[in-house]
Amino acid sequence: MAQHSFSASALIDAPAAKVYGIIADYRNGHPQILPRPHFVSMEVEQGGVGAGTVVNFQMRLMGSVQSFHSVITEPEPGRVLVESEMNQGAVTTFHVEAREDGKKAYVTISTETAVPDGVIGKIQGWMTKRLLQPIYVKELEQLRGVVATP
Hints:
7 strands, seven-stranded antiparallel beta sheet, alpha+beta, Alpha-D-Glucose-1,6-Bisphosphate, Chain A, domain 4
């Protein structure tokens, strides 16, 4: 198996702590940044904020609904949050970096997933990136809108 990764980033006009707080809050904040119709549903199974949270969510990809089961960790609380998908092994990381004396946040959503070696894996990796990267761009746009709301 080979590793495949892709990401999307945006500068958000809000303090990093506020941005990170929205991302880490899987009960109230995070659901607001998930673009529809791609994200069908999300349920918090355990916890709800940051490390130790376990979520189930469904995404509509290529006309079918796929289910995911992820555990949340915070290798660097307030800066790095990781969603590890327990069944398929994909790892999605949210990096939040303070910029402009803490007045803005540079946010990167990145995913690393295993794909088969060879041509099949390259095609699978390309398709995954093509499907998910635009969704991440929309997610960052929605995050920008959520932080702008008082």
